[in-house]
Give the backbone structure.
Amino acid sequence: MATETNVEMNRVNPETPRQEVVDLMRKDGYVLMKNALDADSLAKLKEAYAKEEAAVPHEEGALRMEVPMILGKGDAFENLMDWPVTFPIARDLIGEDISLATGGELDHKYPHSKAYIGWHNDFQWMKDMAYPLPNFWVRCTFFVDDITQDMGPFTLLPGSHRSDHACPYDMGNKYVEGEIGITGKAGDCLINCTEIWHKNTDNVSDKHRRMVMVLYKHIWMKEWEDGSGVCPKQKARQTDPIRKQLVGDIQWHCTKEFPAKDV
């Protein structure tokens, strides 16, 4: 369970000026975009999520359920990759050479399940890199249901993405002064730089924690491995120039201008 703190959460909404959101991201490494999804889109996402959830057996003792390449499994998911109120923020942070780092992920934490990972920054394994690291990845995590402190919310340490060193491996899952568990309502979206120090927490509630994650990178970087890259069928069916860029279906070497330049 995330620890209650007095740290005020960075809450924005679709009407918040874009530069204000980007400035908060650069300063603190995250924002919670309230009402990122409209009611109709949220209803369609819930329906699509329920179908995927029903298709995956609940293995005894499992802490969570993951469904990779989720963006390729219908419009309710695929439309999240260039969602009009969240994608522009990621584009400003990554740059006009933005693309998908994975094919998206359905992230589902079961009731009464322990945390599965402690404090880390996603590129702490990289050696001989000067800190603070660039924004290699930006993640948009859409809340399918309401998320409360007892449900094992993502817990972040604001501003830590600007640290002059990697997150220490021996931090474990301990409480750190200034940490904040990101709670919100269904339809909200957590946007964060993945170099922010973050951890998972116990879900001590009777509720399932349901999320859909969209991860962005520079187009010249490799996609994440382990079978979680962009679905080939999803890549093949794209015709929109920006979506073709996002799925990596354009030439990037020596490109002077990318389709996402004017997003």
Observations:
- The chain has a mean pLDDT of 94.
- The domain at 11-262 is CATH 2.60.120.620 (Jelly Rolls).
- The chain has one domain: 11-262.
